[in-house]
Design goal:
This protein is mainly α and 139 residues long. Helices cover 60% and strands 0% of the residues. α3 runs parallel beside α5. The radius of gyration is 22 Å and the shape is globular. The chain starts with 23 loop residues before the first helix and ends in an 8-residue tail after the last helix.
């Protein structure tokens, strides 16, 4: 008689022998990190905020810059982790890293141009990662 068909003895749970490679503190750190991750479609919102018909207000520049930098870093990390070897992705990663290394200009027009370039590269990288199957379509 098998264990599964014996009424007094339940079948062993498939994960009964599995132990987590992380302790409780490590699991809490991972869970905390996951809670802070914005959905990929939020990147489209950030791009739209900068590239939309109406330019963002100057008092929004710092926050938009911070979000777009984070978006670019996240997309670059995804491409690198997935070992995406697409030439266009490589070029976009180089452009992204250059933009992220620059500071937000103080002058309104220059800062707006910088934000638009950053949003454009972010959008292009997101699209290319979708086209290469590295990420699912977020639109």
């Amino acid at each position: 008689m098998t264990t599964a068909s014996h009424p007094s003895r339940p079948a062993p749970h498939p994960s009964a022998g599995w132990t987590s490679p992380l302790d409780a503190e490590g699991l809490a750190r991972v869970a905390s990190g996951l809670r802070g991750v914005r959905p990929l479609d939020a990147i489209l919102d950030d791009v739209g905020d900068v590239l939309g018909n109406q330019a963002p207000r100057e008092d929004e520049f710092a926050e938009l810059d911070e979000r777009l930098r984070g978006d670019l870093r996240r997309l670059v990390n995804i491409a690198v982790a997935a070992e995406n070897r697409d030439g266009q992705v490589s070029d976009l990663i180089d452009r992204a890293q250059t933009l992220v290394s620059e500071e937000l200009p103080a002058d309104y027009r220059t800062a707006l141009g910088y934000l638009r370039r950053t949003a454009g590269v972010t959008n292009d990288l997101l699209e290319r990662l979708t086209e290469t199957g590295t990420i699912k379509d977020v639109a």
